[in-house]
Design brief:
- By secondary structure, the protein is an alpha/beta fold.
- The protein folds into 2 domains: 127 residues, RNA methyltransferase domain (HRMD) like (Transcription Regulator spoIIAA), CATH 3.30.750; 177 residues, Rossmann fold, CATH 3.40.50.
- It is 27% helix and 23% strand.
- The strands form 4 sheets. A 7-stranded mixed beta sheet has the order 10-9-8-11-14-16-15, with helices on both faces. A 5-stranded mixed beta sheet has the order 1-5-4-3-2.
- Strand 6 and strand 7 form a beta hairpin.
- Helix 1 crosses helix 2 and helix 3 runs parallel beside helix 4.
- It is globular.
Length: 384
């Protein structure tokens, strides 16, 4: 998949069972999620919900592996987290969630659970390792994950995620190979995900609560989804009774994925449309065409540079224009959900002073992500 569709989106039982091959009738197109880096061939990652994770320090793994004691600690932490978050998720009715987020300095990894499969994201650290040493270490990590979580090694999929740079080149969804599309559930809805073909799975778990908030407000309203990615917000709006949804994204691949997600949930109707367009260009044209909506979601990448785009997207620089243009398309009393995962983001003071603007980050960040805030979010209401 290509697309500047954003960069800048966790319970099961105590002993997760190995996932069975999914029956997916709509193979999804390929392209490269939400972060930066490169996809590593699928291969086999810990937990500790009660204590704050330590900040990972560069470790010199010149021998290509952590010590046996460190691996034992890692395995114990994974088992502890699996018990804690598994029970929590079962109570919440959640089947996909964050299990481990850089809890131990020797293992700077992010680990997400997808109904018996694990998405392991390795954070770039600057460690001094040869490729061979890194390969040995990573295989050992993957094996440790599989043993601790009692799943097969082929159920662990790894990705290397570079630390986000404010200035960079390339699309944010550069990915790897084909991978397998399979279906997961969230809040009674179903979504296609893929843990191999892209940097991200196709479903940003950190916006689980944001999607629920949108769904609760969607009844009888029209909804605009900008930088729509795989259309999860559109699916939630449709499920909440939205009269129509419009998903705008530059990637044909992700729009096709969005269509499949909508169809999977019974919303393959003319009321739920997708438009391939550069969001900046589309916003310039939409007002003149008389487009109006009651709800809008604006969750742009932090930074994106694609050959398909007319320019370069920088959310810190461009968010004022994006927000104001989107607000112009809302009916009186309309609601805009704006979100970003840029760590040092500062909302424009003029936007913040808007009478209908309030930050909702505390309401949108799920418990399994609370240790490291994954995004910030605002709800802006137009004047009636």
């Amino acid at each position: 998949m290509s697309a500047p569709a954003r960069p800048p989106e966790g319970g099961a039982s105590q002993s997760p069972e190995r996932a069975q091959p999914a029956n997916h009738t709509h193979p999804l197109p390929r392209e490269g999620g939400r972060g930066e880096g490169s996809s590593i061939p699928a291969r086999p990652p810990e937990g500790g919900a009660s204590q704050s994770p330590e900040r990972a320090q560069p470790v010199n793994h010149t021998e290509g592996s952590s010590s046996p004691a460190q691996f034992r600690e890692f395995g114990n932490r994974l088992r502890k987290n699996a018990r804690h978050w598994g029970k929590w998720a079962k109570r919440q009715g959640i089947t996909c969630y964050r299990l481990y987020d850089r809890d131990l300095p020797a293992f700077p990894l992010i680990l997400d659970w997808y109904e018996g499969r694990v998405h392991l994201q390795e954070m770039a650290t600057g460690w001094k390792q040869t490729e061979a040493e890194h390969e040995i270490w990573l295989q050992a990590v993957a094996a440790a994950v599989a043993v601790a979580l009692e799943i097969g090694p082929d159920a662990v999929f790894t990705t290397l995620r570079q630390r986000q740079q404010h200035r960079r080149t390339g699309g944010q969804y550069q990915g790897g190979g084909e991978g397998e599309d399979f279906i997961v559930q969230e809040a009674g809805l179903r979504f296609y995900v893929n843990l191999e073909a892209h940097l991200d799975s196709g479903l940003f778990l950190d916006h689980r609560k944001t999607r629920a908030m949108l769904r609760a407000r969607a009844q009888g309203r029209s909804m605009l989804n900008l930088f729509a990615y795989t259309g999860s917000f559109s699916v939630y709006a449709a499920a909440g009774g939205a009269t129509s949804t419009l998903s705008v994204d530059l990637s044909n691949t992700y729009l096709e994925w969005a269509r499949h997600n909508l169809a999977l949930n019974g919303f393959q109707t003319p009321a739920h449309r997708q438009v391939r367009a550069d969001v900046f260009t589309w916003l310039r044209e939409a007002q003149g065409e008389g487009c109006r909506f009651d709800l809008a979601v604006l969750d742009p990448p932090s930074f994106s540079h694609s050959k398909k785009m007319a320019g370069i997207l920088d959310v810190q620089r461009d968010h004022v224009w994006l927000i104001r243009q989107t607000l112009h398309l809302l009916n009186p009393g309309g609601l805009l959900f704006f979100s970003t995962n840029l760590r040092d983001f500062d909302l424009d003071q003029g936007i913040a002073a808007h009478k209908g603007c309030r930050e909702i980050t505390r309401e949108t960040v799920p418990e399994d992500y609370a240790r490291r805030r994954p995004h910030r979010a605002w709800l802006i209401e137009t004047r009636g």
